[in-house]
Protein 1
Amino acid sequence: MSEKGVPLVEPHLLDLYRELRNVTVPAEKLQTGPVAPEIMENWESGIPMLYCHPPQIEVENFFEVLEEISGILKQYHPDRSEDVDRILAALPAGAEARSKAVAGVLRRDGEWLSDFVSEQDLPEEMVGFMVSLTLRPFLRHFSAQLRESLGLESWRKRFCPVCGGHANFSRLSRENGARTLYCSLCETEWPFARIACAFCNEKDQKKFRFFTVDETERYRVNLCESCKGYIKTIDEGKTPFDEKIELFWDDVKTVHLDLLAMREGYENKIAEIPAYGEEVKN
Ligand SMILES: [Zn+2]
Ligand SMILES: [Zn+2]
């Protein structure tokens, strides 16, 4: 892991994410199965793998991971311990309800989550945070199993080929300046147009601007005036030649850029689920 050139991040945030990322899912607890040709056709038509070839997740393992993540959150945010405990206590107890909860969370349409929050009167943001952190190790594992067999070069869409999420980071390659998008939920990276919005597909260069705060210009924040979305970008050409870049850490280490972008009125679109149908028609 590289931690060069990042003055603004609190050390405890890196420690927190290091611990969270150490939470893994044993291989036998998440079954992906072979991708049949008809599934691959669906994927090629623009349906992310999570929807055309969902993984089999062991329900109880999901709750074990949720408990583990919750323990880490409480350790780093003792002020939120009460909320975390209240959320854990409100989780469904029966086998059927637990299985429905996992299926609902995996669909990522927000329906299960909003019902759970309103029925139990829970803090929505915290529930969303816990659920998304719990999904990460499963989706990371799912992506690692699949992405070698996917022709990512041909994907070039505004959402993740594996989990369907929006990107929250992008990279300009050192070699030729080509751009890739990165999904922090499942850690998949795929090619995308250099001049286009990763959220609304705006292509008019006049609608874009970016800002940078560090002297090296290693990071920039791309802003779109059409949808008010922003995305953080690393320009590899501005990084030391021998540095091995891990976008996961560049994302964590640049939370100050998220704060700046949001303060300027731009939005992180990562919680939005894109409309796949529309994209397929494009
Ligand atoms: Zn993803
Ligand atoms: Zn846009």
Protein 2
Amino acid sequence: MSKSFCSLVWNHQYVHTNGSFKYCCATNDKILDKKGIPFHINNSSFDSVWNSDHMKNTRLEMIKGKTIPACVKCNEQEEQGYKSMRSVDNKEDYIRETNADGSVNHSPHSAEIHFGNLCNLKCKMCSQNYSNQIGKELLEMGKDDPEWLNWVMKQSGNVNNWTNNLSVEYKWFKNPKIAHKLVEWISKNVTELSILGGEPTIIPEFWKIFEHCEQKGTLTGKEVTIVTNLTNINPRVKTWLPKLENWTIWASIDGIGERTEYIRYPSNWNKIVENLNFYKSILKEKSNGKIVFSPAISILNIDQLDDLLLWQLEFAEGKFNNNYNLSWMAQVWYPKMLNYDVAPNDYRLKIAEKLEKNKHKFDDTDEEFKNYYNSHITNLQQDKIEAKERKHLLESFVKYNDQQDRFRGKTTWRKLIPELEQSITKYLSQS
Ligand code: SF4
């Protein structure tokens, strides 16, 4: 049996924010044409990418069991004993259906589409590749303080992700021909669709998928996942969602009240709750959907993890089930200064103690939930960062957030998390 085989290359198509194509979200490598240039949605048909030499060769190599360099992340995860994104569903059928040259006669039934990088928020852990607002704001701040902007660029990865091209905007879907090509392809072929951005719900072309599929009668049978920051809704989903086979709202909420407003600036907590309740009301009428909470856990919210989870459980009416769920509670790794491992020891231990004390409140949750919760406590108790790096990252954290807070003129991390402020101030004064 081939260990490199992955069904996604037989059934899935991924469109990146910039309009290029990949096998899936687990790889950074793009699908290339004969000249070694990445295919782009603006000038390539879906069929030509799907049965391109690149895809055909990958399928043949996978059948032979050859290692696929683009799949390095999955390979590494498996070597370390973790589950990867690799799928072997219907493997034998797919191999049988593959033509001698590696082409296949079917189109992918699954797709992940990133609708450019237009977004209305500037979340702390995001980058301009996924929100055009982030780069714009940094450039604006740089007008008053070019030295600071220069420092941010040099600290790419530490304080902000990928600061290479701050003014980049991916708007390929604004071309009506491209948008039409996409919605028609989805309508005809895709039954499992995941939509991300940017923020898809602020993009009119995104809603055209629903309009078009409704007109063509192809909403039935589709499973649609929308990853959204919940700042915006379209009342028409009330008629669209019940027609789907099933739907999932992947809700990006990282804190309660002011905290999520700060992390996911400039969101409005009351509006988020109102929109969540809107989806809940659709669920009450027909239970073919699911709201999945997907918190990103960082130094800015680890202290609220128990409160946030309790709030989410309460929203789920006391129990995660088929209609309300929680994805993994992912720890933020980048930018590095947001990783809670970076926090001073006294702060991390104090938070671990708080989470431990409230552990019993989650006695009724399943093992997976408890494992995630406990793994954060264990992480907090470990000292994983060298003193020199901790000092550098904490200084960077203070410099970046203080400047950004001043520029935004709203609340500050110092006001919102005073215990963190005290701990960092003490640590930096002693180191
Ligand atoms: S093995 Fe991993 S990286 Fe490769 S196609 Fe499958 S999911 Fe994507």
